[in-house]
Amino acid sequence: MNEYFSKNSTEAELSGWFESSDDNSSLDLSSPAPEPVLKLWDVVLCISGTIIACENAIVVAIVFYTPSLRTPMFLLIGSLATADLLAGLGLIVHFVFLYCIRSEAVSLITVGLLVASFTASVSSLLAITIDRYLSLYNALTYYSDRTVTRTYIMLILTWGVSICLGLLPVTGWNCLKDESTCSIVKPLTKNNVMILSVSFFTVFVVMLQLYVQICKIVCRHAHQIALQRHFLSTSHYVTTRKGISTLAVILGTFASCWLPFTIYCLLADYTYPALYTYITLLPAIYNSMINPVIYAFRNQEIQKILWTACCGCMSPGMGCRSRSPSDV
User: Fold this and answer.
1) CA distance 88 to 106
2) How far is 186 from 168, CA to CA, in rounded Å?
3) Which of 68, 173, 244, 289 is the 20 to 30 Å CA partner of 250?
4) What are residue 38's phi and psi, to 5 degrees?
5) In Å, how far are 153, 194, 303 from 156, measured between CA atoms?
6) DSSP string covering 8-39, please?
C-alpha cells in the first residue's frame, strides 16, 4: 500500500513539473505565481540579453568617449546601440524579477522598458536608413548644420514615440484584469500588440523603399564614374554588386529577424502555446545582437578605436579615412 501511494505521489510531481515547463498559454512577462519552475527558454533569453548588453555597451562607450564620433551618422548608431543595450538589460531584469524578486509593479515597468527599447531599436534603424539615403540624395549639402538639426529631430521623435509606447502597459493598458484581452505576450493587450505590429510593417515598407532608392543611386553614381573614365571596368560591376549585396544583407537580416514574430502577433492570441511565441521572439531579440556587427563593428573608425583600446596599436591595413553614411 505504501509503495502504491509513493508511486502515485512521484507521478503527480513529474506531471506537475512538465505542466509548468510546457505551459499552453501566452508568454507571461507579468509577475508569475509563487515558486515558478525555471524554464529553459527564460534562461536563453537572459543569456541572450547579457550578450546583447555587453556588445552594445562597447559601442555606446566608444561613441560617447570619442569626440571625433559626434557626427550625425555616429549619433544615430549610438542611439541604436543605446536602445539595444536597454533591451539586453531589460531581458536580464525581467529574468531577475521573474524568478528572484517577484513584484507585479516592477514586472510592468520591465515590460514597458522592453517595449520602449525594441521600438527605439527599430526606429533607430529607420533613422539610419533615412540618413544613408539623404547622404546620397543630397550629397553636396549633407555636411551642413541642417543635417545636424534633422538628426536631433529624428532622435527626439524616435525616443519620444518609443517612451510613449513603453508607458502604455505601465499606465494601465494591460490585460492583468481581463485575460480575454491578452495577446501572445502577457500582460500586453491584443490592441497594444497590433499597434506595434502595424508600426513595424510601416517601418519595414519605408526602409524597403529607401533601400531600393539607395541601390538606384549607387548604380547610377558608379555608372557615371565609369563613363567619366571612358570605359566600364570590371571593378565597376564588382563595386556595384558588392554595395547591393550589402544592402540586401542588411534588409534581409532585419526582415528575417522581425517578420516571423510580427506576423505571429497578428495571427495568434493568448490561447496559443507559449513555445511558438518563444520560437518567433528569439530571432527578433537576436536582431539586437546582430546590429552592432552590421552598423558599428564594420565601421573602420570604430575598428581603429577597438584595435587601439585592445592592442595599443592599429592594424597595418586599417586606414584613417573617415567613412560617410553612404559607405555600405
Assistant:
1) 17
2) 13
3) 68
4) -65, 125
5) 5, 24, 28
6) HHHHHHHHHHHHHHT-SS-EE-S---SSPPP-
Residue pointed to by grid coordinates 506595434: 196
Polymer length in residues for the chain:
328
pLDDT values of the chain reduced to their tens digit, one per residue, 328 residues: 444 444 444 444 444 433 444 454 566 666 555 566 778 888 999 999 999 999 999 999 999 988 888 888 999 999 999 999 999 999 999 888 887 777 777 788 888 999 999 999 999 999 999 998 888 888 777 888 888 999 999 999 999 999 999 998 888 888 888 888 888 888 888 888 999 999 999 999 999 999 989 888 877 776 666 666 655 555 555 555 666 777 888 888 999 999 999 999 988 888 888 888 889 999 999 999 999 999 988 888 888 888 887 776 544 444 444 455 555 4
Give dist(CA 224, CA 242) in Å, integer: 17
Measured N-to-C along each axis, helices 274-295 and 234-267 cross at an angle, to the nearest 10 degrees, of 150
Prediction pTM value: 0.82
Which residue has cell 493598458?
173
Give ∠ CA 278-280-283 in degrees, rounded to 5: 100
